Amino acid sequence: MQIILSPAKRMNFDLQEGDSIETTVPLFQAKSIEVLDACRTLSEADVAEKMKVHRNIARQVYGYFQSFNSRTVPQRAAALAYDGIAYKGLNAHDFNDDEVAFAQRHLNIISGLYGVLRPFDRIKPYRLEFSRKIQPDGYKDLYDFWKEDVNRYLSKKLAGEERVVINVASKEYSGMLYRKLLPENTRIVEVVFLQQENGELRQVVVHSKKARGLMARFIIKNRLKLVEEVKAFDYENYFFYPQLSTEDKWVFIR
């Protein structure tokens, strides 16, 4: 069983608790350079337009691309550097050695720049969503560029274990999964989190994002290997709700 999770736009490279954990080198560094080369051709105005961001953010992102190979650029484990809501839920800072090892084998962070990251691969500051129209030479977009490598890697991880992908990524990043490139009969289980408010069940983005990280944490902390065990997820009062669930879409409510 493998887990896929989105990266976060917000990042923090200030070292703190958990940074003593040994980090690893990202798997597809040579291909990341190809993406970086395409990004370096962009002006600040291009970055603002293609990434749909304010000029102040565009200036910062432009700086990330241009200075990426500088020796002074900070590096940090991906799961610690990403500072979004989902990563507050994951809270990888307190993982022990066994949990780190399990996370490295089972948690996959999909990235526009790195393709796929293990949680303790060391990364540098960047911003690059998958859906942005960045075109490395010979490819129509980042999905086209990364699909073979990412799905081949996941296929190797799924070999010899239960062929299930727990999808707690957003649609933008889960769109990187191509069933034809994964082992035959691989299940992709989409997980949905709902809130009970005023007698209705609603998906609240901020709570759903945190719950995605909490779900990954639950699997890692309990070192689960069978998909049915995931239904026991009960962090922050969530519980599995079979009435709204299907075989490959699981709903948890609170």
From TrEMBL:
GO terms for biological process: response to hydroperoxide. This is UPF0246 protein ING2E5A_0429. It comes from Petrimonas mucosa. Belongs to the UPF0246 family. It comes from the Bacteria. GO terms for cellular component: cytosol. Transmembrane segments: none annotated. InterPro entries: YaaA.
